[in-house]
Amino acid sequence: MKLQMHHLMPKTLKMRLILNLILSTSVPLVLIAVMTYSSFYSILENKISSGVQANLKQEALGLENTLTNLSYASKQLAGDERIREQLRIYLSDAPAAQRAEALKEVRYSLSMVNFTNPDIGLNFYYFPEQAQPILFENLTVAPGFSLEGRQPLMFYNGANFYGPHPSAHAKGSTVFSIVRHVEVEKNKYGYVYVESNFNLLKKLMSPEQYGMPVAHVLRNEKGEVLFAESGTEGTAGEREAPAEAAAVAEAPEKLTVFTHRSEQGWELQVAIRQSEYNKEINDWMRRLLLIVCGSLFLSILTAFSIWRLVYRPLTRMNQEISHIVQSKDRRIRFTDIKEFDDSLHNIAEMRQQIFDLIDRIEADEKRKRQLEIEKLLVQINPHFLHNTLNSVQWMARANKQPDIDRIVTLLIKVLHYNMGKQSMIVTVEKELEALRHYIDLQSMRYDYEFQVVTNVDPQLLLVPLPRFVLQPLVENAIYYGSGSGDTAIEIEILSPNGRDMLVRVTDHGEGMDPHRLEEIMEGSANRKQGLGIGLPYVKGLLDEVYGDESEFRITSTPGEGTSIMMKIPIWREEAVHAERNHRG
């Protein structure tokens, strides 16, 4: 057997190189192709499926939020006793002046609801038994409006939801709507009708975000088709299978259908042609086949070239490459052959670039902590939260509740400062102003059970420091010191040497033992107090901004109180600009 194999081997170096190179290239390449085919097929399919499901979930979430906003707006218009009182006056035989005042009040309430809910379009009150059934409409209503014959999307939260359907507005488009019962007085009732914004449906169900042609199908809580688009077929009331509802009219073929069922009861589906769904996978397979064929072809060409090479310079070059990889500082010994020497020179440059890249990666790792700190400040949607608090503030003022109005006003100021997008570097004066708002808010919360005494050097008011470093210190003092008899909290901001600024917050509360201090600094305790950021955030921020130039220390004695001290260098204007550029 060995003799036969020996006779089958080529006799020339050229043919042996060709045979060995083809075998050494093709066999691993075929094995890799087979292995990657199964793995990459699964990866790409999961990637496409996950992308479609994520987009579908996002669309469904947007639709849920829209319907929730419609429900909230209709509740305001149907459940507000003050609005219902004005409706009773307007629908009664009251004097004209009194009815005109009632009309003004109701229109004002409608305008406020529209202002605070950007997803809302047409809205009005509907009293079918009145001579003029449509009242207080904010836009023109097309003639012949009626609630009869509409296919409901769902009954949820005490109201009927409809849509998508043509808007009741004379020039409107396809919208969602809600109808909620309004009882003005006994045996006299009507409805409040609220539609979504005219462009909302197009915005919610956009095929462009999928990156491929898709078809949307919307079903109500009974499974009936209410909406079908982009080459789909289906009429309201049908209960066919999703794939049939999305069949392509001109050339039916197998479809891939994704379904998201809302907790509110309705279903949103996306149907995709199988050819479009597998397009990226098929393209990848063609590229893989092209790579395999190209690699085999190049292997043959390379085999013809290798046998012409001189083996001694090649061996010398391999040795130098090995030494270059093993040692960073070793000098290169060239072969005196231009082609090999050029390659060695390029490899040496590449080695230097790799080590430079490693150095940059190490520098980037040091900035990760800053990214984590900034991530904490954007965990809540400030726009939504501020709009909601402004609505609560408006309702408190409308109902003459000054205490709630003051609490919400203070909370808005505190959140605007803490979660705002302004610079992370502020002045001591601005930090103290925000701290006073926070203290006022906490004073109302603890029913004024503590007082805060400040001792601030006026010359330090314009000294820059990182934003949101004082509040966690005072928050800790309030939490651990407000339950004792002596409820005074002392805040000192001084400069003992003119180069450093010393900040000290002292309480006379119950104090803490060393174990408790360790838990607080590790962030394992008190995570839900205040904003839940705590003292580890402050220390991490000081380390990030000032490095070794800052100092942060806590001293506490059980039964006597706790003192938190931080010392930071006093920055000048040029240092502030340098830090901002570094952080930017």
UniProtKB/TrEMBL annotation:
It catalyses: ATP + protein L-histidine = ADP + protein N-phospho-L-histidine. GO terms for molecular function: ATP binding; phosphorelay sensor kinase activity. PROSITE patterns: HIS_KIN. GO terms for cellular component: membrane. Keywords: ATP-binding, Coiled coil, Kinase, Membrane, Nucleotide-binding, Transferase, Transmembrane, Transmembrane helix, Two-component regulatory system. Residues 347-374 form a coiled coil. The chain crosses the membrane at residues 21-44, 288-310. Signal peptide: none annotated. It is an enzyme of class 2 (transferase). Residues 469-572 form the Histidine kinase domain. InterPro entries: Bact_2-comp_sensor_kinase, HATPase_C_sf, HATPase_dom, His_kinase_dom, Sig_transdc_His_kin-like_C, Sig_transdc_His_kin_internal. Its EC number is 2.7.13.3. This is histidine kinase. It comes from Paenibacillus mucilaginosus 3016.
